[in-house]
Amino acid sequence: MQDQFEQDHYTGKMTRVDPVYVLQKRLHKQLCAEVRLIEKGNNLLMVETPFTFSDGDPYQIYLKELPTGNLRMSDYGHTFMHLSYENEIDKFRDGTRGKVLQSILSEMDIQEDDGELFVDFPLDKLGAHILRFGQAIAMVCVLAERGAD
C-alpha cells in the first residue's frame, strides 16, 4: 500500500496517514452505505442489508426497542417461511439436522420461538448483531439447501 498524506487543519503541515487507518475509514463508509434503517411504524424498524436468499429475496430483519432499553432483532418468522417453500421445515427439528440447527443458533447466540429467529442486545452491539444475525440466517439456509441427514 502506498503511503498517504493529509494536511493538518491547524498547522498546515503534511503528515503521513497510517494505510490501515485509511482502509478502516473506507471499509466503515462502504459498510454503512450498504445498511439502512427504514421506519415501519409502531416503533419497528426494518434493517435493509445486502444479504439475500439464494433466489435474490432480501433477508427480513427488524429492530424493536424493548421495555428494558435493549433492542430485539427479529426475522418475524420470515426465514423459516421462506425456506418452507422448498423444504419440509418440520425436518429442521429432527435428528442430525435439528442438532445442527440448535448448534448454529447457540453458536450465534440466536433464539428461536415457533419459527421466529431473534436476539436481544444492548444498543452498543447493534453493528455486530446485524452481521451475526445475517450470518446465522445464511447458515440456516445452507443447512436447508445441503441437509444434514
Structure characterization notes:
Helices cover about 40% and strands about 25% of the residues. It is of the alpha+beta class and about 150 residues long. It has two domains: about 35 residues, no CATH class; about 110 residues, Yope Regulator, Chain: A. Helix 3 packs antiparallel against helix 4. The longest helix has 21 residues.
Main sheet characteristics: 6 strands, antiparallel
Percent strand equals 15-25%
Quickly give the CATH architecture of the largest domain.
2-Layer Sandwich
Q: What string gives the helices and strands in order?
A: EEHEEEEHHEEH
Total helical segments: 4
CATH topology group of the largest domain: Yope Regulator, Chain: A
- Quote the distance from N terminus to C terminus: 47 Å
Helix percentage = 25-40%
For this structure, what is the CATH class of the largest domain?
Alpha Beta
